Prior knowledge:
mainly beta
Amino acid sequence: MQCYTELTPPTVVTHSVSLPFISAQSNNLVVARASVLQIFTTKSVSAELDKAQNAQLQSSRSTEHYDSRVNDDDGLEASFLGGDSVLVRSDRSNYTKLVLVTEYTLAGTITGLVRIKSKTTASGGEALLVAFKDAKMSMLEWDPEKHSINTTSIHYYEQEELQGSPWALPLSHYVNFLAADPGSRCAALKFGARSLAIVQFKVAEEDIDMDDWDEELDGPKPVAELSTTLLNGTSSNEETPHATSFVLRLPNLDSKLIHPVHLAFLHEYREPTFGILSSTTSPSLVLNRKDHLTYMVFTLDIQQRASTPILSVTGLPQDLFRVIAIPAPIGGALLVGTNELIHIDQSGKSHGVGVNNFAKKATSFSLVDQSDLELRLEGCQIDTLSAENGEFLMVLSDGRLALITFQVDGKIVSGFRLRLIAPENGGAVIPTGVTTLSKLSKTTLFAGSECADSLVIGWARKQGQSGKRKSRLQDPSLDLEIDDEDMEDMEDDDDLYGDDQEPGKEPSRATTVAGSRSGDLSFRVHDRLVSIAPIKDFTLGQTTSADKEEQTSQPDVASELSLVSACGQGRGGSIAIINRGIQPKAIGKFEFPEARGFWTMAAQKPIPKSLQGDRGANSMGADYEISAQYDRFMIVSKMDLDGYETSDVYVLTGAGFEALTGTEFDPAAGFTIEAGTMGNHMRIIQVLKTAVHCYDGDFGLTQILPMLDEETGAEPRVDAASIADPYLLLVRDDASICITKIDKNLELEELEKEDPALSSTKWATGCLYEDRSGIFAKAQSDKGTGAGENVMMFLLSKTGALHMYALPDLSKPVYVAEGLPFVPAILSANYSARRGTAKDSIKEILVADLGDMTSSYPYLIARHGNDDVTIYEPFRIPSTTTQELSTTLHFQKLFNPVIADDLVALADDEDEVLKAPPMRRCENVAGYKTVFLPGTSPGFILKSSKTLPKVISLQGSGVRGMSSFHTEGCERGFIYADLKGIARVSQIPIRNTTYAEIGMSLKKVPLNINVHSISHHPPSGTFVVGCDTLEPFELPKEDDYHKEWLQEKDLVFKPMVERGLIKLVNPSNWTVIDTIEMEPCETIMCIETLNLEVSESTNERKHLITVGTAVSRGEDLPIRGRVLVYDVVTVIPEPGRPETNKKLKLVANEDIPRGAVTAISEIGTQGLMLVAQGQKCMVRGLKEDGTLLPVAFMDMNCYVTTVRELKGTGLCLMADAVKGVWFTGYTEEPYKMVLFGKSSTRLEILTVDFLPDGEELLIVACDSDGGIHILQFDPDHPKSLQGRHLLHRTTFSTGAHPPTHSMLLPRTLPEGSDYQPQQTNGNGSMTNGDAEPPAPPSLILLSSITGVFATLASLSEPQYRRLSFLTGQLVSSLPHPAGLNPKAYRAPLSSGAVGRFPPGVDAGMGRSIVDGALLARWCELPAGRRAEIAGRVGFAGVDEVRDVLREILGASGLTYL
């Protein structure tokens, strides 16, 4: 059988909600990415700091003035109530950034998020109600004790008795949505045709009538008694946040609610009240009818399970599709249609606006005409900008921004108007439509998108000079002291941002808050969540560099191929280049076989005594500042071929280094263990095996601290060292430690070990960490700590106990955790395991900050004996009784599925002692605070502010030593030496490149146009991209059958149709070097690179670009297609642009009179092509005169989505959009196509591919519901009717990530793989010499519209049996967020067409595809549980499980990426 493994997480954003979730004071954003739930918090970052991190997001001018209220919530709110320029401008210098708190992968597809105010949550924050496909809900809240979410209730409405009539469609065929009461009294889930599930929540009982109670007149106010009586009359002292739920049939509320469209709970009602849009007419019967929708408002009596209608508005336009509740003071509901917006207030009074010419034709409802806007409202999203001002933001489906402004007379809405935001004011900052809007603060909101990056956008109100000055001088409440210089600065800003015209369109009688809308809004992007969704197409190709020198220096650190995908939609279209590991950009490369370790440092020059005066040794002159200096020196530890150990010092140059001589540095002193600076960069510390040497800034020797035990006279050698100014920790080979501190005279002094355990305990390893965040402080505070004030010492004993000391106090540890070798999910001081529980060997620990310029956080990193890494995140639990670390400090294990390679010798000489270099903490490499993992599996632990820490491998061989490298020629880079003896000065590429977002190297190249297909042309090394642009549709005037079209007047508001473009992209700098435009109304359907025969006489073959198109000129004319064949030829480049030396040259142009060309493939051995044209699949050959000669064909059913051929065999697969899979064969003598077998004719197939498995040939078909069907052709099976029906082996559900494209790729296997023997029939020899060898191992790469790449790989029989048992054990051993069932999530759909009509003759025998997502969670288990399960399911031990998982998980089968 097979294993399904997801390579990348989903990047699409489907839902979001803003709420205080972590605590009552927090500002959190919860984002749903199809099946992943992410919890963010917000952080304000100055524009100057952000400019260094992201060059795209920078303010026009840095601001000298800073307002103290920016970081104060009340001040931030107050700063936007009036027109105060100083406060508005202080916000201009800050960006709101998202910082990820945690994320969870759920075994379900999220369909809704709402916030529920609850007073019973453990954190004090609000609760979160999550709806899942098809009709499930889970209520989540934050648990501060476990630092994770807690599922408090589960609601399930998929029982058959709730489905209504027997002829009702499956739940997945209906639009199900979730809505919540603003007062959090209940929530409603609409599911099925017309069912409404009501979940009620307990709220504090309050009586609105007693709000005006006057104690002087009415006497003492009575105290309300809290009732503990539940709905069913029983009493309970145990309070739960919710009561029972119930299901309402909408026609029972009102007989008109036959076909509900949408509903929303309304504001300002005492009881839960919702407005619902519905119709009594089926959507399929609306032709020639209009205005048949009804809007009704119902008040729910939850206890009586009854409802009362309070208003009804009939005759509404039929194109309304959404109800949006409007908060006070406007109130009511906004109904959104495709051509109009209608507001209905609490009394039923309505106001409407038509936004295009179709509004007056589609409805008789009274609308204000704003048809000059020419808007299309399909897919728009609306959210509140300012409820007090009556301003709402609308994001259209093309990304444009519009402002909805309500006019109010007193408390009555008198109307509203729409206005597009001008592009110069940020009206085009969003490239395409969004799926969700969530307001983060007064001036920022989050726009989540399925088609491009999701953005945090902020706005400010621009004002004219006179208005600004007047508001400043007339508002005494602000009490600002403004002098003349400040006024001049403000006028400078006025010139910078420009004068604005007063928007005088609104009637003067219609106002809201006085003076609140006095200027235009200006929008800008603050932050973004990178997305590669939707993946439209992908290919593999070589992405070469333009620099010839760089090509020669990169062969070992650049991958053979890259995964290049066309992703995004509309103006968000882009190309994504994905590689497994970091491909460093080599600045310099040289042979350095003896190097074993590097340490770079920026030491301060010694200050002459003439400059020191009486200010002491620590005073510095202006010329001796260290902060802006580059690294000056580098110490290198060496070992020559004879095993002789030395150390050398080098002075760093622009992109290299030179040996430094003439100093007191002694190269023969021995092997350097650690080096760095101490004493505020005044001293260089070199830790040798036998001593510690101190130097000044010019390598003048100032002190030698020998390793000598005065009591015993022993001379222990140093094994490891850690520096955190002003402390130095040494771990010696006799398991003792030495802690020294540098004093004011810049001399090292050993600290006395007051705690006897420090001397008696055998220590394995340790590290120092300067706690800048205060997470390890005894008393947590918001105040920062000074340098060296809060240094923590972490020690790991030989028995595995973790000890923490707060230096310089060595009298007792502040924290002791015994359980680290058991790697539990949560490590605490009181964790204990059963006696005899298996342990992991931990050889190294390191506490380091991980993050980027926006945010960083300390993590405990434990490195195991097999080089695997476990990452722990420290957190403090709230405690009212004590602040002791032993009680409040816990460590939570983070998800890290990366399995290190097997250890090999680090040197060619076998005599060299095998010892992996220690992990290296790097303060700034390419803007990341990171940790480097040297050894045979080199990599960085990278974390951005919007991700969790990820282990990203470094391309190339193993690494002996590494250090950060910051010079003028290589800023924020690093230097490392690999096992081949080559040293490189490198940088991590960061231009348009991210790493931690998808756990792989991702470079995004924006094309700013809709892209949907891509192919690689190997001879030229270029990529061909199919794009399209929208243009107005014109009726064909030359049509002979429709003479009346000639008299047709031009429409003012024309429909938009796609027009195809072919772009040639050069990967040297990823620029478009050639563009070819298609005919009007012609769309590119597919692009493939085929190896075609171009000469009938010489049989010459050539790689040519083949394009299939469709010409659709309206529903009255038949669709026709074209097959275009292009070659990429070399031309003279444009001046100054050497990359433009390639062009597309047309080779063949074949018109297809009937039907579009939807799929193309190579076929046979003679260089022919298989073309899916309309309802035929035809084999064509390229003739020398540029025509395509048909030689064989096969009639198909409806619409062919995919054609595939098993290369060179003539075996073909054809997938129909509604009629399943056809398995055919093609022969060349004579030319003909033969049908072998078919699947069920009810399958909607998106993509299909072959999967060779040894001597078996499997067919993998992916349907529109996300199911992966494994089919097989077997004419010997009795039920297959001589093979005419394909056998159905199994079906597996991909859940939220239905595959839309697939590709068969070669699979790389490690040595000794269990899968190898199956390839050679077990005995490694073939019995029949004429028999063909079995197919090489293969896998299928799948892509999804949610941004997920996944693989489907075959397993050997022993692997399948053991991994199937292992997934069953993991399901029962691991916690599952939101109470969801992973096995049910992966089970095939029992409803719909697949449930009623199986894909083929059932021959599955109960087998299924193994879920790789569950196997990846193996690392979450503690060590003891892992050992127990490994033995139970038939593995020899935990190491064997690691070997199998490393082979099948991640991109391990694609090592060439």
